[in-house]
Amino acid sequence: MRRCFILLGCILLSFHSIQGEEPLNWHQFQGPSRTGAIKIPGLDLKSWIAGDPNPNWAVELHEGFGGAAIYNEEVFVLDRDPAEADLLLCLDLESGSEKWRFRFDHAGILPHSGSRGVPLVEQDAAYFIGGLGDIHRINKTTGEADWTVSIQDRYEATPPKWGWAQSPLIVGDVLIAAAMSTDAGLVGLNKKTGEELWRTRGFGDSHSSTTKLTLDGVEQVVFVATEREGDGGIGTTISVDPKTGSTLWDTAIYFNKIPIPFPTKISDDRVFLTGGYGNGSAMLKFTQGAPNWQASEQYSLDIGTQMHQPFLIDEHLYILANENANHKGEARKTGGLMCLNLDGETLWHTGDTPFMGRGNMVRVNDHLLIQDGETGFLRLVAPSPKGYQELGLLDVFEKREEVDAMIAKQANRKFVRLPDFKLWSPMAISQNHLILRGQERLICYRLR
Questions:
Q1: How confident is the model at residue 101 (pLDDT cuts 50, 70, 90)?
Q2: For residue 228, what pLDDT is reported?
Q3: Are the CB atoms for 306 and 278 separated by under 8 Å?
Q4: Which is nearest to 176 in space by CA: 219, 240, 224?
Q5: What is the pLDDT of residue 431?
Q6: Where in 112-185 does DSSP place strands (E)?
Q7: Mean predicted confidence (pLDDT) in 114-139
Q8: Torsion angle, CA of 325/399/64/55, rounded to 10 degrees?
Q9: pTM for this one?
């Protein structure tokens, strides 16, 4: 009997470790659940940021936007040797020292040069999509590619405006990526071999990434794209079965000429779509679910967020309403962090105090961490429909002196213009570490 209890205890411990492994790892774009949210029991971010912490380590990179992934004791980040090659770096989480790097020579210049996207890391392999459309599975033991697929060659695809700025998604054994050619929209590949398993029809292009949602009890992959015609065009939001690639539903209700944020699930029958470039946002409502999906527009908004996803917290949406159209002068007063109710009504917004640019936002426990896309300042915010509550600020990239000097020179101006250092990369937070990227530097903080 005692042996039975010991065996049962080992099984339960093993099960707990397996179940608990993923939440400890920010192993893909927007974290464990691909929602930008994570729970870390016992973490006191307010005390941490009030202590004005110093970085644990910093690593110099080439110019770029690629964010980090964290898996166990390793950090994976994309870099690009300018105009020459894509790089995947594997770093030690505690020290930042380089353990190995993978290099893939592919000459070419990307608008807004440098890396983009976040690797997806599993126990035995890391996957990434380069800006020129090369999908890789990198063996973590050898540091070499198990396979590489060129989207341009296999699917006769033309690069989108700023290249393939997407992060891979894996559901089961299927790696899902956006090929965005005339004959192939989304494609599903065998993650171990790179063999094509399925493809959807073509639907234009995008700079968004696929995300996995469960709507009406059905697991599905959803993606936002568009076929542009000048400043207009036809938008497509498409949902597919991740196993077969069969289309569950698609709709042209929402159009954005350059989609970037991925869809946000609100409930089993509602999805929020948003973006920049003056195309606003829309709430989709499914008046009928599986198997005969019917989508309609519950409401639309003029505001949107250009780069990063909003958060649904206690029946309210928190959105960084910052895009090209409101980055200057009087228009900045329409931006900043914004709180909406689920009917689309604005409860409050910060305008230009603070504006916060096109930086990343993540949710940690009950707080929001916001990296200012212009100055790099890191803000800790307590989300509340009652108003903006900033709990702390950290000058991560040491830009305070430069920012203050620029503000001082504009003492008599009605509207102050801040420098924009284009600090737009996604953050990663896992275990006791927070990793942020500037254009040419990766910085890691210990959180306790």
A1: very high
A2: 83
A3: no
A4: 240
A5: 82
A6: 120-121, 125-129, 134-139, 145-150, 169-171, 174-178
A7: 97
A8: -130
A9: 0.93
